[in-house]
Every structure is written in structure tokens, then in C-alpha cells.
User: Fold this.
Amino acid sequence: MNYLLEGLLNLIFPPREECPLCGGNSPGSAICLDCSCWLAAVQKEQYCYTCGRPIGKGSLCNDCLERQWPFTLCRAVGPYSGPLKEAVHRLKYQGKQQLATPLGRLMAQQVVNEMVYRSVDMVVPIPMAPSKLRRRAFNQAHLLAVEVAKAIDRPLNEVLQKKTDTVPQANLTRQQREKNLQQAFFLVDNVNIHQRKILLIDDVITTGSTLSAAADVLRQGGASAVLALTLAATPRTK
Assistant:
């Protein structure tokens, strides 16, 4: 639709004010009471200290007990379930790009909550392969990273690129995901990230394979540390 026409229609028929998580009616498009209560409850639940994924008990999930990641740690707003899962789908698959602003601000709040994040030098989104970017027309990780960078007053740098469109990760095992992403990412030419602490942004952490592959390239490129932040995290068992 022509942007001028869309703007005119919005003036005549203002868009419905809706909760950025569940999409229900909400004055000022604020997070509704039900979703606020849900978020408050799930954020009190146990999560893995390293990868940030929800776990039933303990301080580390099985994955983090068995391996070391190239990123220092990861945090998420909440689990990939309920209204947060709805929000990811509305942003990612329904093209509601305006949701990136409130969702990115929710992510930025996680940075404020933990001292280790306050020393990051730059914000870097997980890139999307050019062919997939052309099909979708936007990269949700980039949209979220823009909002996080503004909120924490750090520069956004797209120092990572993705070579080709890989097989969708959704239905792959962890081993398949890791193989799928081998050599998928690379640093752009003439970029200098030596001794920089980087905040890596994605929408969801599932097995950690995507963040791990990207963080590995950043560390090899000279980054002193990579911290990750996502909107949602797929629950893991202890």
C-alpha cells in the first residue's frame, strides 16, 4: 500500500490501540493488565544463569553444564510461550513492525537490570540472509536492536552478515542446527571490533546455536566479550 494513502487512512480510521503482547484492546497501546501480571509471574521463575532459558530447578541447564558458549551469557524478557510467543509471531510472521518499539524497550529493561550489560560498547543484530530479507522485507532482530540501542544509548553496528539462506531452524535438532550454521556468518570488510564488548540481539533463543555461531565469529574477529539478549527463550529442562 502507498505510504501516503496508508497515512491518510490512519487519520480517518485510527488504528485500534492494542496490547503489544496479546493484541487485545489496551488504551495507549500499553501492555494490558493480564499480560503485565503474566510477565511479572514468569520473570520470577527459575532460569539458567548462563543461557537465560527457563528451567525447572537449579542454576544451569544441561546444555550449559556440558559446554562452554562463545557468548558470556544471555537473557530474555520471558519464555517463548503465552502472550510473548504471540508477540513474536505477530512481529515476525504478520509483519507488525511497529511492535518492535515496545518489545525492544522491554528487552532494554533486562540490560538495565544486570550490571554486566552496562559496559557494552555496541549493539549488533543477528543478520538475515539477503534472499530471506528480500522475501520478508525486514529483519526482526534488526528492528529490536534499533530500539535496544536507542534505549541504552549505544551505537548500533551491523558488523555481521549472513552468507546464504540456511535451512529453517525450527524443526532441527541442536546438532543439526549447529551444522546448518557452520560458516554462515562473517564480519563485514574493514570492521574493527578489537577489544569491544558486544551486545548481540535476536528475537528467540532455542538451542543457542544461532547466537553461538554469531558470537564465535565476533570473538574470532577480536571482540573482548559477547553478551546476548533476546525477546523470548524456549524453556529447557534441567
Q: What stands out?
A: The chain has a mean pLDDT of 88. The two ends are 48 Å apart (CA to CA). Strands lie at 74-79, 122-125, 160-162, 185-187, 197-205, 225-233. DSSP finds nine helices and six strands in the chain.
